[in-house]
Amino acid sequence: MGSLFIRNARIWTGTGDVADAVLILDGRVAFAGRERDASVAAGIDVIDAGGRLVVPGFTDGHAHLLGTGAAMRAVDLKGVPSVAEAARRVADRVAATPAGAWLRGAGWDQNNWPGAAFPTRHDLDATTPDVPVVLNHTSGHCIWVNSAALRAAGVTASTPVPVGGAIDIGADGEPSGILRDTAARLVTDAAPNPTQTERIDAMEDAIRHAHSLGVTGVHAMDVGRGELQAMYALRDAGRLRLRISAFLSASRLDEWFERNLATGDGDTMMRIGGVKFFADGALGSLTAWMREPYGDTSGTGFPLQPIEQLERDVRRCLAGGLATAVHAIGDRANHEVLGIYERARDLAPHLPRRIEHAQLLAPDDVARFATLGVTASVQPIHATQDMAKVDRSWGERGRGAYAFASLLASGATLAFGSDTPVETMDPIAGIHAAVTRRNAAGDPAGGWYPHERIPVEAALRAYTEGCAAATGATATSGRIAPGCDGDLVVLSSNVLSTADPMRILDARADLTVVDGDVVYRRDP
Fold first, then answer.
1. d(CA 467, CA 62)
2. pLDDT for the residue 465
3. Rounded CA gap, 207 and 520, in Å?
4. Is the pLDDT of residue 112 over 90?
């Protein structure tokens, strides 16, 4: 915990109060207001903000922290223009892959390739026949593997398909190399697990990256046993410099109950947030659960587990003191999850309820978020990255996709995040997407479904106070006010007063403070 005085600033406190100075003592905000009214003891470090904008530290409301660090070390397939280029990048890494290890990569998206067809194991076998290869789709909801990985995992045409998954079969009657949702575990569970040291190193890489973007806290999603142990190890060693709310993987639900874990357990740096569930898959893998068929296929996606089982598990968590966060992409999935929350609304009402992504909503479901007190934990960067997919697969239904303004108008709480490493963790990119509904190139002019654009201040609030509300932490988080956590970021430009919203993208984190300590300073 540190102490710090920042002066000569334009401070967006989140409270509406006017301030140009903030004093942090022992990790907590002690004063936020006019500099002339501040009383600063000798010896306190002073930073002159030079008139720059200071905002509460950003929280990423939906992040895969260990996955982000691992992706930074894996083959980067984001934006690759073809199957051939993806296979070439994989082949280039073979020489650096230790004997017995598997080669991993992430970020490929067949929608960016000519014909938009899914790749096959043969595309990888041609250049990488012997080293097992596992490549995660940009959505995180399917994998592309080579024949060596299928052999190592013992996956064949006769392998039973788990509920909530699919194994694509090629023209030869054998697995094509694409495994969707729960079926992916058939291969990934056969891969060697990272060591604890590897997990900790990857997590620290991700934390440093977060600091460089002004991110001071994350809601870490789908946290397994190894990742949780790494978080505790960092905290116990005094090396955890990022506030974490851990949402535990539902795949280990019995274990969490045996360990008597409950929402709120922990300290100011590391807390149990709840349990993360999946109702359906994703748009990119065509496994999001829809009311009506996709526009480019006759399928409607599918639930990843029977809805009755999901409801039993949600109720079990709430009754046992664990808040729930449920992934729902398709309009059918969102409708069903809202139904679960409606039927369980009197069970542990003090525990926050969330839907992760809330990507496509039927008009009659929008108002239910506010009515039921369910936070819409959404990722604005998905809107501008996936708009072409939405247009192709959902057509006119896309009008209800990423419905940020409609949700806000209904009174719902928005908590913004990134879904990193699926998309960039950068909150500035997320704010820009929410405010403009345009990609970084400025397309489409006027914004994609512009009626869902929101003001800059609302986007800032969703990255700060909204995330605090999603974990029941508004008393201590998401604002620059006395008694709140001493977390803030100094931005290079004032996103609140930019005449051209496209220039929001120019802003950078110049200084990031966590618990009163400077954890990042951008080299000018």
1. 9
2. 98
3. 11
4. no
Main-chain phi, psi angles of 352, to 5 degrees: -65, 150
Place of tokens 């100075």: 21
Q: Where are the beta strands (DSSP E) in 365-486?
A: 374-378, 414-416
All domains of the chain in start order, with CATH: 4-51+488-494+502-521 (2.30.40.10), 74-188 (3.10.310.70)
Mutual orientation of helices 427-436 and 380-394 as an angle, nearest 10°?
50
CA–CA separation, 105 vs 237, rounded Å? 30
Encoding tokens for residue 238?
A: 């005094």
Q: Which two tokens stand for residue 520?
A: 């990042």
CA nearest to 285, candidates 329, 350, 228: 329
Note the Cα 467 to chain centre separation in Å.
12
First to last CA, the chain: 26
Query: pLDDT above 90 covers what percent of the chain?
Result: 91
- Neighbour tally for 62: CB within 10 Å: 28
DSSP secondary structure code for residue 368 in this structure = H
Beta strands at 324-328 and 353-357: parallel, antiparallel or unpaired: parallel
CA distance 476 to 468: 8
Stated pTM of the model: 0.89
Residue 460 parent element (H or E) = helix 456-463
Please, which residues bridge with residue 215 across strands? 58
Tell me how long the chain is. Answer: 524
Instruction: Give the type of residue at 469.
Output: A
Inter-helix orientation angle 331-343/307-319, to 10°: 40
pLDDT in tens, 200-225: 999 999 999 999 999 999 999 999 99
Q: Closest Cα partner for 189 from 231, 137, 224?
A: 224
> What is the per-residue pLDDT across 124-156, written as a single tens digit (0 to 9) for each?
999 999 999 999 998 888 999 999 999 999 999
CB neighbours of 171 closer than 8 A, spacing ≥ 6?
A: none
Q: What token pair was written down for 283? A: 């748009």
What pLDDT score does 524 carry?
A: 63
